[in-house]
């Protein structure tokens, strides 16, 4: 186990050395930054790419930050660890995106459900409104009938009263 580890470490350092040797040639051919000046090689100090070299604007420094352009280009290829880290971070991002997608799909489903419920309720409401309208019509018709009935009753009551009056006045005339 320890033997394997040491051999892996030596290959890694050999690989690094080889890549440095290879890119050492690259250092002679400096690319031009966006300002049109030869770029300057720097070492990355980030935890993701420690010691990895990159080209950047030669005008870049804490004092002249405003003058520098945003030119950036890696000199060293990523190490196996860096590649693994990158793959892992991409996988992690993919997982997060899948989770977000699932949540969004669930939300969409809920929205669909709500929409269906709402349109069902709207249909029901329409039916109730129609029923209400027909009930109102029926009530109106009954009201009319009731009015007519009252008139008929009033008429018959007047007729009845005048009949009684006529009868009584007839009886009075006979008795005189
Ligand atoms: Zn520049």
Automatic annotation (TrEMBL):
PANTHER family for this protein: ZINC ION-BINDING PROTEIN (PTHR33248)
The protein, known as: GRF-type domain-containing protein
Gene Ontology MF: a single term: zinc ion binding
PROSITE patterns assigned to the protein according to its UniProt record, in alphabetical order: ZF_GRF (PS51999)
One Pfam family recorded for the sequence: Zn_ribbon_GRF
Domain of life: Eukaryota
Transmembrane segments: 151-171
InterPro entries: Znf_GRF
Coiled-coil ranges (or none): 125-152
Domain GRF-type stretches: 33-78
Keywords: Coiled coil, Membrane, Metal-binding, Transmembrane, Transmembrane helix, Zinc, Zinc-finger
